[in-house]
């Protein structure tokens, strides 16, 4: 039993689409992945047969309720949450973070310190920076080493003080692809009595995630980055969720997790989330010989990461061979366990916009710019020069697609 790329690709209708006879190569995955047909079908079925608000006595309402609870169970399995009551849904990671940061702020006092990272996407930076402004908190910045693209954890030791109350950090960078040692980072914060808020948006799609093993207090992710619909999910430690004051209207539920889910939710989105998690479990069962539920999900993520590492190795080796290209991230094969396959590049004579536009003309989809990782782009000195070109394979990409992309890049860069 092993990873079966053809079986995987057959699940994704978008991968077969051609434009004027030209195949598409999706390498824009860090911004959002394609979905298996089962995800679209589940969303469609929800809209067509379970379209009602929650809590009614009638069929559609009951069916919608079952969809919501099955999505919570699925996400609890994916993140290894102790209970599905700790799974909060929302529109996307940014909106969830803006919202819950207000509640977390009620635990903080003027002069308290929070640690933010220079590697993170702005969605795990600015909600907290605004909170700090509103509450008169002190922000301390955790830099990353621009030679290794990783945090130096001794630096973190020096930043943590007895006034540190909160540390916000990403599981993986959406720009450099660095996979952070969040378990060690959370242990350091916990030892100082600080809460931890992990942005798992770029790590959950690539590696098995276990919130209990990480030892964090909150972890957020976005199912549209792992083959699901445009939604956000937060896991929070039960005693904290129960302690926080939810920002909600009076008639809304007051029990967790619903008390943090403002207004009417996208039930069709939840149906899609459940189907996306089921898709991952299918990989674990059919390609890694695991039984259903959490074991299948963990096996799936390990199988996918092993395959993605081979794509990353091929891509990085090819990129390093192109004159003038700098990979803005880890390149050493023996450190590939510490990166996801998201690869950012710059070229010494060509702007990222030109490269991304030229690749688009060949129907190869990539993003360019700072990709909202403003602090990281500034630290790498590429903020003012248009950022980087971000090439982001996932498990449905093939070695041939990587070869074609490298060939296209060589042509575009005149080699
Ligand atoms: C690392 C990271 N965090 C947060 C976000 C924001 O996610 P959302 O679009 O769900 O708000 C992104 C989006 O690209 C991201 O890559």
How do the strands and helices of this protein lay out in sequence?
Layout: H1 5-9, E1 18-19, E2 22-23, E3 25-26, H2 37-49, H3 59-79, E4 87-90, H4 93-105, E5 113-117, H5 126-135, E6 138-142, H6 153-159, E7 164-170, H7 182-191, E8 195-199, H8 211-214, E9 218-221, E10 232-236, H9 238-243, H10 267-288, H11 294-320, E11 325-327, E12 343-347, H12 352-361, E13 364-365, E14 367-369, H13 374-379, E15 388-391, H14 399-412
Parallel strand pairs: 3-13, 5-6, 5-7, 7-8, 8-9
Antiparallel strand pairs: 1-2, 4-10, 9-10, 11-12, 12-15, 14-15
The protein binds pyridoxal-5'-phosphate.
- Order of strands, main sheet, comes to 4-10-9-8-7-5-6
Could you tell me the strand content as a percent range? 5-15%
The major beta sheet can be summarized as: 7 strands, mixed
Q: pLDDT average, as an integer?
A: 98
Overview of the molecule:
The chain is α/β, with parallel strands linked by helices. The chain folds into 2 domains: 5-34 and 294-412, Aspartate Aminotransferase, domain 1 (Alpha-Beta Complex), CATH 3.90.1150.10; 41-276, Type I PLP-dependent aspartate aminotransferase-like (Major domain) (Aspartate Aminotransferase, domain 2), CATH 3.40.640.10. Helices cover 40% and strands 14% of the residues. It contains 14 helices and 15 strands. It has helices spanning 5-9, 37-49, 59-79, 93-105, 126-135, 153-159, 182-191, 211-214, 238-243, 267-288, 294-320, 352-361, 374-379, 399-412, and strands at residues 18-19, 22-23, 25-26, 87-90, 113-117, 138-142, 164-170, 195-199, 218-221, 232-236, 325-327, 343-347, 364-365, 367-369, 388-391. The strands form 4 sheets. It has a 7-stranded mixed β-sheet, with helices on both faces. It is globular and about 65 Å long. Residues 31, 92-94, 121, 123-124, 170, 174, 199, 201-202, 222, 232 line the site of pyridoxal-5'-phosphate (PLP).
């Amino acid at each position: 039993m092993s990873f079966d790329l053809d079986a995987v690709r057959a699940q994704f209708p978008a991968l077969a689409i051609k434009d004027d006879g030209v195949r598409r190569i999706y390498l824009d995955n860090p911004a959002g992945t394609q979905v298996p047909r089962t995800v679209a079908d589940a969303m469609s079925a929800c809209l067509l047969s379970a379209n009602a608000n929650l809590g009614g006595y009638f069929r559609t309402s009951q069916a919608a309720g079952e969809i919501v609870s099955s999505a919570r169970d699925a996400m609890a399995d994916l993140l290894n949450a102790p209970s599905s009551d700790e799974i909060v849904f929302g529109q996307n990671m940014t909106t969830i973070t803006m919202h819950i940061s207000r509640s977390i702020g009620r635990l903080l006092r003027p002069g308290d310190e929070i640690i933010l990272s220079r590697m993170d996407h702005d969605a795990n930076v600015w909600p907290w920076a605004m909170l700090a402004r509103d509450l008169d908190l002190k922000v301390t910045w955790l830099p990353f080493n621009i030679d290794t693209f990783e945090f130096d954890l001794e630096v973190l030791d020096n930043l943590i003080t007895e006034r540190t109350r909160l540390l916000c950090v990403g599981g993986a960078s959406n720009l450099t692809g660095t996979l952070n040692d969040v378990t060690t980072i959370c242990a350091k914060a916990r030892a100082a009595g600080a809460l931890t808020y992990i942005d798992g948006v770029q790590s959950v799609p690539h590696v098995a995630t276990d919130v209990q093993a990480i030892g964090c207090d909150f972890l957020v992710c976005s199912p549209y980055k792992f083959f699901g619909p445009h939604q956000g999910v937060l896991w929070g430690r039960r005693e904290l969720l129960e302690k926080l004051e939810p920002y909600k209207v009076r008639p809304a539920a007051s029990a967790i997790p619903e008390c943090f889910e403002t207004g009417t939710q996208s039930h069709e989105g939840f149906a899609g989330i459940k189907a996306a998690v089921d898709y991952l479990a299918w990989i674990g069962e059919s390609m890694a010989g695991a039984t259903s539920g959490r074991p299948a999900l963990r096996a799936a993520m390990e199988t996918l990461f092993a395959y993605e590492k081979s794509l990353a190795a091929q891509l990085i080796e090819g990129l390093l061979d192109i004159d003038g290209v700098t990979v803005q991230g880890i390149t050493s094969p023996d450190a590939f366990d510490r990166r996801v396959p998201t690869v950012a590049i710059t070229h010494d004579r060509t702007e990222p916009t030109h490269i991304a536009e030229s690749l688009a003309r060949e129907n190869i989809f990539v993003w360019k710019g700072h990709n909202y990782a403003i602090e990281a782009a500034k630290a790498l000195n590429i903020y003012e020069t248009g950022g980087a070109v971000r090439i982001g394979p996932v498990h449905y990409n093939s070695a041939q697609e990587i070869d074609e992309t490298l060939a296209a890049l060589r042509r575009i860069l005149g080699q």
